[in-house]
Amino acid sequence: MINILLNGCNGKMGQEIVKQSLKNANTKVVAGIDKTDLGDNKFPVYTNPENITENIDVIIDFSIPEASMNILKYAKGKHIPIVIATTGFNEEQINIINETSKQLPVFKSSNMSLGINLMIKLICEAAKTLENDYDIEIIEKHHKNKIDAPSGTALMMANAIKDTLTKDVYYEYNRQAKREKRNDNEIGIHAIRGGNIVGEHTVLFAGENETLEITHNVTSRSIFADGALKASEFIVSKENGLYSMNDLV
What we know:
The protein has 249 residues and is of the alpha/beta class. Helix content is 33%, strand content 26%. The strands form two sheets. It has a seven-stranded parallel β-sheet, sandwiched between helices.
């Protein structure tokens, strides 16, 4: 049995991981970290990780960047493998994660869905074939409470496409600020927020006489929870280093 410390346990994704872990014979959430203890969990919830007394095999982090940095410091001190599913990191925070991975196993992904990571492989293949004659646009939709925009997944897709293309490209987030035709070297990235949309990502390849759309739509957060639990099983026995869904898939 893998004992999990869940950072951000009171959030929507945290609670989804708790629910899915009850169906997983290999994992168990034995403690949580959050701003407050709501008293709704069947495991102890700490506001300070230094007070944890449980035996922890792996940490799953579904929180906000600042909280991720705090739990990463704790993981480093205790040399506990960590799965980071939080998004919205700045460049400095990403560098800290990368440096920490030299000292302990770190699994980081902006999206824990196996389907999304398969989609990234598909869009890279399409980009390689179509780059000279097709414009590329990325549209992502999420619920109104999502803080970061564009989503970490949209950026993950854009970065994968950028690494695939032979020409230099840049990201265009706001065409409203300028009145000019589309540049051939841009990838448009658009964020839509509303209602309770769990997550939808579309990559549009627009040619002269045809368009190709590849879309991934999530209807339940359970898919992300399942992916995080699979990642925790994967990372717990790995050597120091930075791992992603590519390694798991």
